[in-house]
Amino acid sequence: MAENKIFAGPKVRRVRNTLGLTQTAMAEALSISPSYLNLIERNQRPLTVQLLLRLASVFKVDLEDLQGETSGSVRQLREVFADPLLAGELPGDLELVEVADAAPNVASGILKLYRAYREQASRLSDLADLLSREGHATSLAEARLPMDEVREKFERRPNYFDGIDVAAERFHQALAPGDDLAGSLKAWLKREHGVVVRLLPVHAMPALRRRFDRHSMRLFLSERLSLHDQLREIAMEAVQIALGEEIMADLERLALSGNEARRIARFELARYAAHALMMPYEAFFTAAQRARFDIDVLRARFAVSYEQAASRLTMLQRPGRASVPFFLLEVDNAGNRMRRAGAQGFPQARFGGQCPKLNIHAAFAQPGQVLVDLVEMADGAAFLTVSRTLEGPQAAFDERVRRTALLVGCDAALAAETVYGESVGRHGPVLAGTACRLCERQGCLARAEPPVTRPLGLDEMVAGLSLFDFQ
After folding, report:
1. N or C: which end of the chain has fewer CB within 10 A?
2. Which positions ≥6 away from 261 have C-beta within 8 Å?
């Protein structure tokens, strides 16, 4: 078996410089020529086994240090240079390897500085949220991806687009689908635009939900999708054709900064339009009022999924026909935020949605169950929250199921208008906060981070219930 060559020139040079030796002195101690040592230090010659043993014997060098991989540092440096702030400066892997190998202390310093930068950016963001909650405008910002810009636009505005909603309702009336919207949309696509919808098995389309082939004019859907999700994909294709002008008009009003952000936002608007087509405003509004916003009743009546019906509840804000202003939050089981929306914008300052005590996190332990809580914030604001897990596309036997959780909420003062309000009086409110960094509740067992507003109360004689005691 071929012997692995060890190129560790920068490490040998670092050993020599640490000992204060010239190349001639080190070469003499190792019984090699200065020119050969020079080639080794420039990584033009590998270290032989005999030379490795001699380095260990003469200079007491740890062989693990000479043979150790730098992949860990390279991986971390790659993450640093993937930051949007440095994306234009991203060096190739060879340069990163050279930095990690030839100057490990410099690499360590870069990593420490980047961690400090991210920590400070996080603190500034938390402080901006705190100041905003108290009515102070801020201009604090950090480098953002196009997705971040789109999310911010959608989260801060009401989740209602009147032009799209009215046009979708008119399109639904023209289709007159009866109880078979999917069949009507397939027939319309084929009749008006020559588009044929086909369902493909997993092996034919393993990584896609849908794909539109412009050459054959066929819309391919993955068999992984539930019937409800298949309907939404068909509806999204139809509304992009039938409601193209309305979607583009609302896209322009969002005033996004780049083409990538516009592309993402157009997709989100098409999803909104698909929901508006599947659940026409007037019919859904009337049904929601009669069912007292029971999401399970609504999803059965309109033949949609729990997630689709819940999303539509946040869109009922037509002037003169507005409903309870619901908001929603979706996270995965690692706590990553997937999306946020609200009938009046997501209540970031008042509700936050990042408290570990919220039932959206407990939902993962009870898949498919609806959990209802009354949540009281530190400032006295209270919210009704309804959480449930959602199943992603159908997984194969050897794949892990993609499961997220959805929280639908509204102001507690409106809880009595919903079917869920009947169950919140059975126990006291959950004392929550907007986020650990902004919460000042003492002795919280769920606290994950110290508050930025208080100094840590480190006392070797006293230990509180929370992991982070503060004054």
Report:
1. N
2. 146, 147, 149, 150
